[in-house]
Batch of 3 targets.
Target 1
Amino acid sequence: MGDGSRLGRGVYYKCYNEVKMQETNTYKNLKDLPRTNSPEYIVLHHTGGTQADPNADTSHHTANGVEKQHLSQGWEGIGYHYFIEKNGTIWKGRPEHRHGAHVKEGGINKKSIGTCLAGNFTVEGRKPTDEQKNALAGLIRDIRGKYSIPIEKIQPHRAFLGTPPYKDCPGDQLSDDWVQKLLIPEENLNMVSVPRKLLEELTQYL
Ligand SMILES: [Zn+2]
């Protein structure tokens, strides 16, 4: 069975492997606390440069490393709800029902899901890996389904920083609609996404 094909009557399907996630200590520590977040937006971040070098390549940064850094700032855990490492591994950070610490402006921390890709996409030629793109697309598909988030409410961090933005997060190598475009094949091509396991089960009966 291939990865995607025409299903008939102009409907296409695309298989995806079910998203595997790891849990940070932040997730474990906060998951039973009451709701403080009502997601309306999905916000994308990158790890960006370091203080010493704004052009540093941070694509090897890990969820555990960023968690440690945020804890050392006195925060209650990693600031994002999801962190996607270079190899595509998704880490659960803050539980979705808890507020994040990733966009100060406009109370967005209490009405969004914050996602972060490891990497510094400010530097020309640096882009997320295919593994990160696939993981992010799958993750956003799940989140949008859960909270009915329209595509225009999936935004880069810099969209919330006023004019002109004082940060370029998630890097100017990623356009404002980069995530939206990542999802477009499914929006426009009558594409249905089917978990591979389910498709394999269903096609037994065809
Ligand atoms: Zn950011």
Note: Residues 22 and 91 are 5 Å apart (CA to CA).
Target 2
Amino acid sequence: MFKFAAAAALAAALFGCASEPPRNQPRASAAVKPNPPSQSAHIRPDLRPFACVGGYRAGAVSGDYAGYPALTQFIEQMVQKHGFDREYLNGLFSQAKRKQWTLDYLAKSDQGLKGKPSKGGWTRYRSQFLDARHIDGGVAFWRTHQAALQRASQQYGVPAEYILGIMAVETTFGGFVGNHRVIDALTTLGFDYQRRGEFFRSELESFLLMARSEGIDPGKPVGSFAGAMGLGQFMPSSFLQWAVDFNGDGRRDLWNPEDAIGSVANYFAQHGWRNGQPVVSRTRGSYSGIDSLEPGIDHEYPLGTLAQAGIEPAGHCGCDYPLRLVLLRHQSNDEYLLGHPNFYVITRYNHSTHYAMAVHELAQAIKSGYQRLAGSPANLGEN
Ligand SMILES: [Ca+2]
């Protein structure tokens, strides 16, 4: 939905950004073959494929980020480590904006991190996602992108409905992919958000590498206030590690539905998705020793330990591996589920029990809706 890649490639051909070739030649992406240095000036942009897209150029950083020693150091690192042009980065960061709204918002939410989940917490979280907009939207998206979802499911061993569950929670299938410029988001969080500045500076480094390898003007992409991009809201480091070109056009484009489908499936596969295994199981028992166990994603228990605490799977489990205890606080009661390894895989996308449960429930609801429309599960083409 965000077609800047082709325009950026054109821009690369129109703007030269440095009068001198770089001392450290950046590595070209697999899709771009650099010309030898002896070629004429006419084709010079190919010497440094897309390294200067946007035509930014300045002797020093001006604007919101003028006089930030940490940014000067970061730019120097990008020059020395990755062969970026210093004046290009000075120009790029001269037009980066400090997003005070983001800093205020995070200061508030950091305060709210403390404390255990409150009564009804799951009920409230669930109601944001388990609705017709997300479920019907998933069914429609499945029908539109049936071939790509089937191919991804077969290639990566991840059911289509879980790819859709992620896209439902993240962006409602591209309905809202964020409107913050990624360069503003990551510069603000990298240099003005002390608690996680190091993390976001690393993401900024990955973002600049991504922009260069894909031929994108780094001033153009928009995403979440934290710099997450596209239908699956990949952070730049996730892009570099797990994004795939799934429509075969030679580019990895997180805003393209097919590339996003393949990338989410690859993310799950690389994080250990076990095809055919369940995500959660219901429980029964006396729960007499429940207080001796810690719910959440950081602790896992063998079935024997759970049995000693008065908890067992409600049906046949067939699980010979440790399980996590998933606490869901409904409005009127607390519910305990058993989280299988696939539950943990979903939390690698977002480290939250509620997040993984919403993805799981949406996956099931979207699958039911799709099967009703398709008429028969045999038509789904799942593996
Ligand atoms: Ca592609």
Note: The first strand starts at residue 180 and ends at 181.
Target 3
Amino acid sequence: MILNSINEPADLKLLSHRQLVELCEELRTFIVDAVNTNGGHLGSNLGIVELTVALHRSLNSPNDIILFDTGHQAYVHKLLTGRIDGFAKLKRKGGISGYPSREESDHDWIENSHASTVLAYAHGLATATQSLNQTEPVDNRRIVAVLGDGSLTGGMAFEGLNNLGHSGSDVTIVLNDNGRSYAPTISLLTDSLIKIRSNPVYMRRQRMLESFTARLPIIGKYSLAGIRASKAAIREALEPQAFFEPLGVRYMGPFDGHNIEELEVALTNADKFDGPVVLHVRTQKGRGFAPAENDHVKAMHDTSPHFLDKEAGSGANPTAPPADANTAPSPTSTSIEPKPDSYTDAFTESLIKLADEHQEIVAITAAMPDSTGLLPFRERFGDRCIDVGIAEQHGVTAAAGMAMGGLRPVMAVYSTFLTRAFDQVNLDVGLHRCPVIFCLDRAGITGSDGPSHNGILDMVLLSKVPGMTIFAPSSYQELQQMLHDAYDITDGPVCIRWPKTSAPSATPDQVGIGVNARKITTGSDVCIIGVGKMAGAATEAAEQLTQHGISATVWDPRAAKPLDPAMLDDAANHGLVVTAEDGLAEGGIGSSIGLRLAGRGPEVHVLGVPTEYITHDSADTILHNLGLDAEGIANTVLQCLNRG
Ligand SMILES: Cc1ncc(C[n+]2csc(CCOP(=O)(O)OP(=O)(O)O)c2C)c(N)n1
């Protein structure tokens, strides 16, 4: 296997083009197997194979800096930089991270995994390189930023373009255009890119222009003049240039992102210009794996493990040539779908019911209609589902505007991505008391995607927004009830936050109402307050404690804000109160409870997530290690009561 002989990017430079084609096949097979075993990002990595090979052949990483926006598409980069063994445990403890990681390799310069940041990093690194060059020159360093068309929809990407163009920084921006985020990208610029790639006249002339440029012996003012003159010939299809070039960013392309030779020439040519250059590279998401190519929902952007079994069970042949996209649209996705009993599923079901009753309800997503459970809503209500692109900040303020205009926006977003838009939540929505409902999926510890994807800040931050109501459901039925109750709150924003896990089923008497807390058991030795999914763990802990002769009161606060005074009064009658939440302990709900009970008698012990970046592992293992499960809660009680 050629792949086994690649320990570092330099090894690639020894291969013939025939061997490179073989290597790309091996890379695809390897990635499909690794993701099938562990789950992970598939479609984006299959689409970027040749581009990554070309980048590493053209550049000299890590002296040259290759930055991947978001970083979910860096598996090939990892495989070409000596990390093949880590893939056996991709995203699992002891295995490789699903995103770039500076701890893993010098070839990884950034690792944040929230989208649209790469041009800002590139601008900063280019500024530093330029500044250092005046004192201690860095060896001919190139900076290349790889940015998807989806990530280009984020505000930070536009801000980055503006600053790169203005500063004239030497950065090559590789626009990896596959036409999709998870779903098709929402952007008229992308529409222009699509038009330009499907215009045969433009493509022909562009090829002539590129070969003309490549043949020039010296790239300088003469060739620039030549290119400017040639541009006159392609005026009819100038939209991308019209966008990039007034910003001071040169546009080159489009190039075939699956043709290594063409890409290498383009990367070499881009280096000959001063200032920022966009190389528009066209790729196909999911390339070479039929189920991903045919997944019209999200091109298997991310998948759970063992999808090959599912494919085999369906009678489909994963290695068969892809079906014709025009004749075989598949409405379903082979990717992660909410389990029938998941919180996401409860949200989908109840939002549709509510929207049937109330025409003014609209749903907002930031490029993730599928994973946030909005696809059935979109199928039913069409343009009442608004995809704003990967633009959470814009989405939040736009929601404020919609609410001011009489709509009732429900923004469905992962907890970790809403925190990026905290200022907008606080001032644009909160200050204006707009009745926007934020539905936060993947709240709490998500685990395997590493520190950037845990949803542990939402309760800390949102509880500081005046007038914000925060619900944390502990069952399928509670989420449904809370969505109805949220609709009735019209004088300010509401947040409902839930974990990725399946949701326990509750009987009608186990479902509360409004912002009232719900008492689950009555005891005398300790009062345990479990927020959201921790209510279940608290109830189990109470059962375990009976074996130690300890009787516990258990409360499910339901509303993390405002806190129910009846619950606080009851808690105040106990000598010990233990709170548990799957968010940061410092500044979280337990600490609010502690403040409210100060001076009223009980000792309050707050269990929550420490203020740390938590390395990837399974969510259950992380929670267990933090003492945030039944056993951990029971042990804390025993220790506090000196019975441990
Ligand atoms: C701020 C933020 N919002 C949402 C996401 C979730 N997310 C991860 S990848 C992705 C799509 C990226 O699309 P694109 O940049 O075109 O890359 P592709 O996967 O198509 O190669 C999204 C929405 C994220 N990582 N960061």
Note: The chain has three domains: 3-282, 343-497, 518-640.
